[in-house]
């Protein structure tokens, strides 16, 4: 019953945000060109790295492309859902309109995380997906059902971690109203998700797997695609994703106790 | 004489904007941190010995990326986002009545932000030197002066390009998406992520005719003491400024003729 209500509400969200976004049709086209150029740029950068080397951190060019494609898919998801919604939180808190959200008979986290949608990000997801299909072809990966399920699990876990990171930072605005640039810091950290974790030095590797688990987000799914990943890594990712989701939820509920609306 | 100089419009604007910017210290500190991508790139380059193929030693490469970070810090431009917001909100109308081109206001804003940013950038550089003691160097006074000038030129070029895009707000509502599109080649071709020397021949043959390598690569090479053509680079920067400035004037005058305040 409850899920049906939420599904119904989400359908309305989709309808309204699509209707308002489709007013800017040329914008969507420009965003698509931006996504394509950015993918070309990253592949260009990767090709510079591989100009005189056969492997970086144990990854060959064709294998590193898988990371690139998974990054593109996840970036598309970020641009479609996380970015537009979670920058909205800052606005809600600054202008005090979070009151209206809290008063609604619906879960506040659900409302602020899914209210908006930017359709151009979906094109980016498709772009990443096509690159992934191409990578599967050039790396000669055999697709079996159990393999696909494993891949799906790791990618879903990555999405959960990514969402939690975004949501976690956006939540902190309840205390420090003006930290929307914190998401820019996160963005620049996420940038390194385009490269295999092994290509970084040991200290950075520790930093990016313990403090900001970017390592889990792209490298582990790519390893699964290549059939290189051990089962404990996948389990670890599932655990990390669950811990992150759980803490971000608790953190939001905790932060709400400190919310005191605007100008009070 | 001195009091006349201080009462000057520009100085008043700068003073106002500086005190305004000081209020946003935390935000600006976060901006500064979000620019650390060059250090991650440096880590990939040195950790995989990629620099051997382009004949740059580890130390020179670390200096290069440090300077790239520094130049980027002082050439960040966001005028299109401010202008877009001001046009949509109708704040531009009162600015237009004043006997001062509104872009002077934005220009002063940027300069004030750079002054506020300086201490944070210096702190980051200090930490960089703690971890990379062997790359400490002191550039000569002449080089310091020349690279300051070329960094300022780089800022000017980007400011002019973005102002031209910002003027498109008079015709379309969301000019910032065009800026996001143009940011992609700036990111990959300016030398922020990889020095232009390392680019493949088919790119190097035409890239020096575009403004991109003069934005980061040239000032960074100059400051870090890597080989570069000083007079050639500076004159190309001046050439681009001379090309872009009349274009801006033209688009500004035809844009203001077209402008109708919101709701008319």
Main features:
heterodimer; A: 264 residues; mainly alpha; B: 264 residues; globular
Walk me through the structure.
The complex is a heterodimer of chains A (264) and B (264). Chain A is 74% helix and 2% strand. Chain A is built from eleven helices and two strands. Chain A has helices at 2-21, 25-49, 61-95, 98-103, 108-114, 120-138, 145-171, 182-190, 202-210, 214-226, 231-256; strands at 55-56, 59-60. By secondary structure, chain B is mostly helical. Chain B starts with a helix and ends in a 6-residue tail after the last helix. Chain A binds chain B through residues 24, 26-27, 30-31, 33-34, 37-38, 41-42, 44-45, 47-49, 51-53, 56-57, 176, 178-182, 184-185, 187-188, 191-192, 195, 199-201, 204, and chain B through 24, 26-27, 30-31, 33-37, 40, 43-44, 47-50, 52-53, 172-174, 177-178, 180-181, 184-185, 187-188, 193-194, 198-200, 203.
What's the arrangement of secondary structure elements?
The complex is a heterodimer of chains A (264) and B (264).
Chain A (H helix, E strand, L loop, with lengths): L1 H20 L3 H25 L5 E2 L2 E2 H35 L2 H6 L4 H7 L5 H19 L6 H27 L10 H9 L11 H9 L3 H13 L4 H26 L8
Antiparallel strand pairs in A: 1-2
Chain B lengths: L1 H5 L2 H14 L2 H9 L3 H11 L10 H16 L5 H11 L2 H6 L4 H30 L9 H27 L8 H14 L11 H7 L9 H8 L5 H29 L6
Helix pairs in contact in B: 2-8, 3-8, 4-5, 5-12, 6-9, 9-12, 9-13
Short précis:
The complex is a heterodimer of chains A (264) and B (264). With 264 residues, chain A is mostly helical.
What oligomeric arrangement do these chains adopt? Answer: heterodimer
The secondary structure category of chain B is: mainly alpha
Order of helices and strands of chain A: HHEEHHHHHHHHH
The helix/strand order of chain B is HHHHHHHHHHHHH
Largest interface: A-B, 38 and 36 residues
How does the major sheet of chain A shape up?
2 strands, antiparallel
The number of helices of chain A is 11
Low-pLDDT regions of chain B: none
Q: List the uncertain runs of chain A.
A: none
**What fraction strand of chain A?**
under 5%
Shape of chain A: globular
Distance between the termini of chain A: 38 Å
> How far do the termini of chain B sit from each other?
46 Å
Radius of gyration of chain A: 19 Å
How would you state the average pLDDT of chain B, rounded?
88
């Amino acid at each position: 019953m409850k899920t049906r209500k939420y599904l119904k509400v989400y359908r309305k969200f989709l309808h309204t945000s699509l209707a308002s976004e489709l007013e800017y049709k040329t914008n969507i086209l420009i965003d698509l060109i931006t996504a394509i150029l950015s993918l070309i740029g990253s592949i260009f950068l990767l090709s510079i790295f591989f100009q005189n080397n056969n492997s970086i951190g144990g990854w060959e060019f064709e294998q590193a492309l898988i990371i690139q494609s998974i990054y593109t898919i996840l970036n598309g998801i970020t641009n479609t859902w996380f970015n537009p919604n979670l920058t909205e939180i800052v606005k809600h808190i600054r202008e005090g309109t979070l009151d209206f959200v809290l008063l609604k008979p619906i879960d506040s986290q659900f409302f602020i995380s899914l209210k908006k949608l930017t359709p151009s990000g979906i094109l980016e997801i498709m772009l990443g997906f096509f690159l992934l299909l191409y990578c599967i072809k050039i790396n000669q990966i055999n697709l079996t059902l159990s393999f696909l399920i494993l891949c799906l699990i790791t990618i879903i876990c990555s999405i959960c971690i990514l969402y939690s990171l975004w949501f976690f930072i956006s939540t902190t605005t309840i205390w420090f109203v003006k930290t929307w640039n914190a998401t820019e810091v996160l963005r620049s950290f996420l940038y390194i998700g385009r490269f295999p974790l092994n290509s970084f030095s040991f200290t950075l590797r520790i930093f990016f797997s313990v403090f900001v688990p970017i390592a889990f987000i792209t490298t582990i799914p790519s390893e699964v695609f290549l059939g290189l990943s051990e089962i404990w890594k996948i389990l670890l990712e599932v655990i990390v994703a669950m811990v992150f989701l759980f803490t971000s939820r608790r953190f939001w509920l905790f932060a709400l106790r400190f919310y005191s609306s605007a100008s009070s | 004489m001195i009091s006349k100089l201080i009462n000057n419009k520009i100085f008043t604007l700068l003073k106002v904007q500086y005190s305004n910017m000081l209020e946003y210290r935390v935000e600006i500190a976060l901006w500064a941190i979000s620019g650390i991508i060059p250090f991650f790139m440096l880590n990939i380059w040195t950790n995989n010995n990629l620099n051997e193929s382009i004949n740059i030693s580890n130390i020179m490469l670390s200096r290069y990326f440090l300077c790239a970070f520094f130049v980027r810090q002082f050439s960040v431009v966001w005028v299109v986002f401010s202008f877009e917001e001001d046009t949509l909100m109708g704040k531009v109308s009162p600015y237009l009545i004043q006997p001062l081109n509104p872009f002077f206001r934005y220009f002063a804003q940027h300069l004030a932000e750079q002054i506020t940013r300086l201490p944070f950038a210096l702190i980051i550089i200090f930490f960089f030197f703690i971890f990379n003691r062997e790359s400490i160097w002191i550039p000569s006074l002449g080089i310091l002066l020349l690279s300051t000038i070329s960094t300022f030129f780089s800022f000017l070029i980007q400011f002019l390009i973005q102002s031209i895009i910002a003027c498109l707000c008079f015709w379309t509502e969301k000019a910032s998406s065009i800026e996001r599109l143009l940011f992609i080649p700036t990111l990959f071709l300016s030398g922020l992520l990889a020095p232009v020397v390392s680019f493949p021949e088919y790119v190097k043959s035409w890239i020096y005719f575009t403004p991109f390598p003069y934005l980061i690569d040239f000032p960074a090479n100059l400051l870090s003491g890597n080989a570069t053509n000083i007079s050639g680079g500076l004159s190309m920067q001046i050439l681009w400024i001379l090309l872009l400035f009349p274009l801006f004037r033209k688009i500004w005058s035809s844009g203001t003729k077209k402008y109708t305040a919101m709701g008319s």
